[in-house]
Amino acid sequence: MATSVLVLGAGAIGAFYGGILARAGCAVSVVARSDYDIVSRDGYRIDSVHGDLSFRPVQVLRDASEWRSEADYVLVALKQVRGVDRAALIRPYVSPRSAIVLVQNGIDVEPEVAQAFPANPFISGVAYSAVSRLAPGVVKHHSQYTRLVLGNFPSGTSEAVTKLAGLITAGGSNGVATDDIVGARWAKCAWNTVFNPVSALGGGLATHDILGSDETKAWVREAIAEVCVIAAADGHALPPDTPDKQIAGTLRMTNYVSSMGQDQLAGRTMEIEALLGNAVRIARRHGVAVPKLESLYALLLMLERKGVH
Amino acid sequence: MATSVLVLGAGAIGAFYGGILARAGCAVSVVARSDYDIVSRDGYRIDSVHGDLSFRPVQVLRDASEWRSEADYVLVALKQVRGVDRAALIRPYVSPRSAIVLVQNGIDVEPEVAQAFPANPFISGVAYSAVSRLAPGVVKHHSQYTRLVLGNFPSGTSEAVTKLAGLITAGGSNGVATDDIVGARWAKCAWNTVFNPVSALGGGLATHDILGSDETKAWVREAIAEVCVIAAADGHALPPDTPDKQIAGTLRMTNYVSSMGQDQLAGRTMEIEALLGNAVRIARRHGVAVPKLESLYALLLMLERKGVH
Fold it and tell me: Would the pTM of this model clear 0.90, i.e. be above it?
């Protein structure tokens, strides 16, 4: 029988990996909200550098009441919004055999969900995949350099991890199993925790403007170095050349506005805690000073508060 | 003969002190650009808590070619914009007997101008005066707590200083002569150097939103403490309770958007260097770490660059 996958939060990332897993032979269902009408009629149209990943889900659900099946993998690609109880959102779709897979950004995003499902296999995933949602049900995938790093939380791998990584690779992308998923999260945070907040605080600043002068480049380097200091204190030291490599890599990439900058421009909620607040709290726990990240965090909280009024 | 005053940069501050000095019996002329037509026809309408300060300047100038007179005081209330040569703007209005009076915000704003006029009396001024320009030629002055602190740069007072302070007081406001004008600048920077940049980075954040949570209040307190550290290293220590007093005072005042926040909202140039960049450079010179102010500075430079594109 085909591996059964339920994708919860079928935005660009969820739809993309749904398409990859469908091509790997999985029976993929999705929970779609705003895109329900179009996706239930036409399925997803996914134009990818991996080829055409368009697919029609086995089932398109509006909400949990329509779910009568059992998933081998419940793939959670929800945005992490303040005050939303992710465990409660996930629970109706989880059966005893379901492995829960978090494909979400940031650091320390697992405990809340992992603790809510102590009997289920739990997988944490870090996605490198430049995808964007062009229209309801329509996704574009831009980058050759795409991979999904998967591991158990807080460490180790399992059969459920290696099987899922294999399915991602079989579907034409790159699935990688790691013993140190937290380290993989820190490696991604080296970019995310700095460039995303800065983009939002600049009112939707693009990467090349962020790195537009020696003065700002030096500051970005030091801010990334603060992320490295937290990662090391947390037991997951990053390579010492991480700040320089992140900056050089960003300048080689196309100039673009990161997700938090786009959220800010569009008046949408930002993933402040997952991307930054959790990192700051880990720093405080370890007693390491990260004044640049503390500044970004305080400024984002002010910015968010302004949106509230 | 009446004391002759030329006001250069007749925005809200320039018009307000022009009105005060006119009421003190000075012969006040102004250089007006965007407001030239209305001011040359109707004079200024200034509604102040000190009473009606409306006045008709002796001469309203469009530019320096119209200036045939000599001023005892050339009062400079220009906005400090990157790349503008203030000395060159001032020079045509300065005669050997003119005292140059800078009524401008920020720190270390004097040397460039003072050095350009080594033979003239030079006065530095720090204005506390809640004024706004409601329309061309129309100014509103809100606050009882208004004073203009005046002194020679870098320290001391002179007859020109005490005479001008006396004229301000005679005109119905408060003129104060100080031996330590740089200390007075640092005292004002304790607020300006933090609240102005934060307001701009928040897309025009108001003061009470900046102080909206314990988390952001704690950050603001530490950022003000960094200003105090620079001031002390620069030989002008501020009272140790400065951060707490600034925060408490700001919460007592009306909720409002500071000038840099208003500039950012309106797409106007911000006074980044005078209010923040100069303070950061003084810190670097003294080898004191001010990572929160460095963060604000880097972020403002990015924001400014975005405006340029």
Answer: yes
